[in-house]
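Regression test case RT-17, inverse folding.

Input:
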């Protein structure tokens, strides 16, 4: 079962979220406008693009931990510059980048990041692409008045401390340069979709992927890595991690799993997101008599299941992921 839909909530304390830009020595976080019962709130957010970037980073780390080897140097380094062959290295791209551009989709998706996170090649008359198999919403504050009024961005001052021998050769102002980084705290909701059925399968090109080893074993490893990477992502997402890891805790997580494409879950920022998600999936399952949908939930809500949906609640996140991986392995 390789079609996965996630929604949930997490608490972030002093998180850098998405870097928006810098004015002098002041680094901002991204801000978006959300509406709640006719009132507009400008709130700090984590963009879907930033959320996706960190999943790609943790995906590469997890894949290598599982023994995977088919990823190029850009993927390994967390650089989102896609479309190059799996043999590509930074030095090779500097010497002759065009030589290492993938010739077609099948050649490109031998690389892990091209495969799971997609690519676009626009060179000359060519325009080859692959949509990302994983997609991420904006991470926005939970849409409840009290939370929206409390969540806010704020700046923390940092100093760059320089050893005395270096400081003696510099002006004091430069040696102890002060800069400010914005952070945010609050309860945030998110939504994610993964279409892992298309791992190592071309979507726009009629071609065959050629690997030295077992194609299905490699695809299974990549699906497992994509799921496991979420554990890293949900407990440490955000930007400016070199200054401070966000203080994060996953409050709730629901994942719908099916062997066929299914609707997205309702975004975790909405008050009744779990109940509404089950209702949507139940209506979908009723329309397809052979559709089998599993929903796994971790958190403190006590809700009833829904007709046509096999619903299970877990008290331990580890048990949910164990069950989830078992379902994904049945792909």
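Golden output:
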């Amino acid at each position: 079962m390789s079609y996965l839909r996630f929604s949930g909530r997490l608490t972030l304390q002093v998180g850098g979220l998405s870097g928006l830009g810098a004015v002098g020595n002041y680094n901002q976080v991204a801000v978006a406008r959300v509406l709640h019962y006719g009132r507009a709130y400008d709130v700090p957010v984590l963009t879907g693009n930033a959320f996706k970037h960190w999943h790609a980073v943790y995906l590469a780390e997890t894949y290598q931990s599982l023994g995977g080897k088919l990823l190029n140097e850009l993927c390994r380094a967390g650089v989102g510059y896609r479309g190059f062959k799996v043999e590509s290295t930074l030095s090779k791209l500097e010497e002759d980048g065009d030589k290492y551009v993938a010739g077609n989709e099948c050649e490109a998706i031998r690389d892990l990041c091209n495969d799971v996170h997609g690519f676009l090649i626009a060179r000359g008359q060519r325009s080859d692409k692959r949509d990302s198999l994983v997609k991420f919403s904006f991470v926005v504050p939970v849409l409840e008045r009290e939370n929206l009024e409390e969540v806010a961005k704020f700046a923390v001052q940092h100093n760059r401390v320089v050893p005395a021998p270096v400081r003696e050769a510099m002006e004091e102002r430069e040696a102890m340069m002060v800069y400010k980084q914005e952070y945010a705290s609050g309860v945030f909701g998110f939504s994610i979709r993964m279409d892992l059925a298309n791992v190592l399968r071309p979507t726009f090109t009629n071609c065959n992927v050629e690997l030295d080893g077992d194609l299905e074993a490699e695809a299974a490893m990549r699906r497992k890595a994509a799921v496991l990477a979420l554990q890293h992502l949900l407990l440490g997402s955000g930007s400016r991690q070199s200054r401070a890891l966000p203080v994060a805790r996953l409050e709730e997580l629901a994942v719908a799993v099916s062997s066929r494409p299914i609707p997205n879950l309702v975004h975790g920022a909405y008050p009744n997101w779990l109940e509404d998600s089950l209702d949507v999936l139940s209506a979908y399952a009723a329309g397809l008599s052979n559709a089998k949908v599993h929903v796994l939930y971790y958190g403190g809500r006590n809700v009833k299941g829904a007709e046509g949906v096999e619903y299970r609640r877990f008290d331990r996140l580890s048990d949910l992921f164990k069950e989830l991986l078992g379902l994904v392995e049945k792909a």
